[in-house]
Sequence to fold (118 residues):
Amino acid sequence: MKKILIIDSDEISITLLLGILGKEGYDLSVVLDADEVFEALEEEIPDIILMEIMLKEKSGIEICKKIKSDTRFGAIPVVILNSTGNLFFEAIWDAGADAIIDKPITSQYLLETIAELI
Fold:
């Protein structure tokens, strides 16, 4: 079973993602606090990370850069869930993201993107 780590602080987004991905049989875990990301990664390496760009404490771009620059976790695909339009596209790619999914999320595109990356 493929493991997905969801990093998001918005309950509605989390509920949506859990509903879509849970039906597909993925092993899901959620991190609400940006400061807990590396603790979660050290506990269990996911097959892919889905991360909101706008987190409460830090930006998803900042966290993505840290993940991608860490030799232990840099190979994990990171998908940025983008609610900012084109505003940060270049910064997202520069951070090392493997894909961007604009909100509102469509189930089909989400599942296709995940399937391509893992």
